[in-house]
Amino acid sequence: MLSHKLQVRFYETDALKHVSNTVLVGWFEAAREPLFKLFTPEMDLDNWPIILASYKVDFLAQIFMGPEVEIKTGISRLGNKSCEVYQQVWQRGELCAEGRTTLVHFDYQQQKSTPLPDDVREKLQALWVEA
């Protein structure tokens, strides 16, 4: 799995003194950047080849400001035109959240999904995890 470490920032906490539930979606997206670069190494937003179709987050334990968090990212499903990204949030050695995001290879000019390129598929397969 890919790994992305970060410090919890004060503004990411809520009145209950833990990380707000809205923050994890942003963390997961930031940790998916290496996957985006598999599709478009230059991160060319004028020729962006993917679209987010769905995401789900399961909260397993509270996350607090202070200790570093680690986002782990892998691929849990690989289809013809899409893939499912499986992600975890760890803090102090504890699994605190899991997320699944479906990314679709997409042609914005034609407004339709297209098959994953073979070279990208191969790179995604290298990140396979059982989830």
Task: Characterize the structure shown.
By secondary structure, this protein is α+β, with helices and mostly antiparallel strands. The chain has one domain (2-125): Hotdog Thioesterase (Thiol Ester Dehydrase, Chain A), CATH 3.10.129.10. It contains three helices and six strands, in the order βααβββββα. The protein has helices at 23-31, 33-39, 118-125; strands at 2-6, 50-59, 69-78, 82-91, 94-107, 112-113. Strands 1, 2, 3, 4, 5 and 6 form a six-stranded antiparallel β-sheet that branches. A hairpin with a 2-residue loop joins strand 4 and strand 5.
Radius of gyration: 16 Å
What's the name of the CATH homologous superfamily? Hotdog Thioesterase
How widely separated are the two ends?
Answer: 12 Å
Structural class, judged by helices and strands? alpha+beta
Question: Which keywords apply here?
Answer:
alpha+beta, Acyl-CoA thioesterase, fatty acyl-CoA hydrolase activity, HotDog_dom_sf, Thiol Ester Dehydrase, Chain A
Task: Provide a compact summary of the structure.
The protein has 131 residues and is of the alpha+beta class. The chain has helices at residues 23-31, 33-39, 118-125; strands spanning 2-6, 50-59, 69-78, 82-91, 94-107, 112-113.
